[in-house]
Design goal:
With 263 residues, this protein is an alpha/beta fold. The protein contains ten helices and eight strands. Helix 3 (39-51) packs across helix 4 and helix 5 packs antiparallel against helix 6 (121-127).
Length: 263
């Protein structure tokens, strides 16, 4: 999507997570920099980058990147936020059957929060690219999937049961920038019901901050690169232009777990 928005005059930045500013092959060969990396550290990394920009950027994040965007907006950063199939913040019930199946291998990894976890092809096919042609599923796995820090999955799963969770936001914050949530209706790992719950929590909070939800049929968790991604990009662009017209701000892409490269 970076090329799409660059062609429309945006300056696009896609900085990597800590430890992922390397080629896919290098991360696969030595994932040790990811051990113990948590949501708090990732959010702090991006907060520092955002504060170093000349103007508040439009923040875009996918999956856990979508949670990071919400955390940054809650800190008063960004001129707008767009989150695609976002991992939910604390207070959102996330234990849906397909989500649990997608994450079971990680959650049941002994002391997984201290380890780097890996997706097998079968696990990735179910959680991220379900329903896509087998050749596309395999190509996505071969090109993008890397080991990942296990800590973020435990922090996400236990967010509502852990005091001081790094996943907490103030849904009622009045000064939050506008937020657009996007759900793929065929997503397994972040099924649309979870995105709707997140939207309703913001929308019912009493905050005057703008919050919107858009859903796309036939889209999986891979909606950023799945056939038809241009429709989603067009929808984002239209939302950004009206009614608040954030066209002058740079746009920053978020990260998805197990994915390297521009989102």
């Amino acid at each position: 999507m970076a090329g799409f928005f660059q062609a429309r005059g945006y300056k696009c930045l896609a900085p990597a997570w800590p430890g992922k500013d390397r080629a896919v092959e290098a991360i696969r060969a030595d994932p040790s920099p990811l051990v113990g990396l948590g949501i708090g550290e990732i959010a702090a990394h991006y907060e520092q980058l955002v504060r170093g920009l000349d103007e508040p950027p439009i923040l875009i994040g996918h999956s856990f990147g979508g949670l990071i965007v919400q955390l940054l907006l809650d800190r008063g950063l960004g001129s707008a936020g767009v989150v695609l199939d976002p991992a939910p913040p604390s207070g959102i019930w996330a234990f849906e059957p397909t989500a649990f199946r997608s994450l079971a291998s990680v959650i049941f990894t002994w002391r997984g929060w201290r380890k780097v976890v890996r997706w097998t092809p079968a696990q990735f096919f179910y959680a991220f690219v379900n329903g896509l042609p087998p050749a596309e599923q395999q190509a996505a796995y071969d090109t993008h999937v890397t080991p990942e820090t296990g800590r973020i999955f435990f922090q996400g799963a236990l967010a509502s049961m852990t005091a001081g969770s790094p996943c907490r936001v103030d849904f009622a914050r009045t000064t939050r920038a506008p937020l657009l949530l996007i759900a793929g209706l065929n997503d397994h790992i972040v099924p649309p019901v979870i995105v709707r719950r997140t939207y309703r929590r913001y929308a019912s909070s009493g905050s005057p901050a703008v919050t919107a939800l858009r859903e796309f049929p036939g889209r999986t968790h891979w909606l950023l690169a799945q056939d038809g991604w241009q429709e989603i990009a067009e929808s984002i662009a239209a939302w950004l232009e009206a009614p608040t017209a954030f066209v002058a701000a740079p746009l920053m892409a978020g990260r998805a777990p197990g994915r390297v490269g521009k989102s």
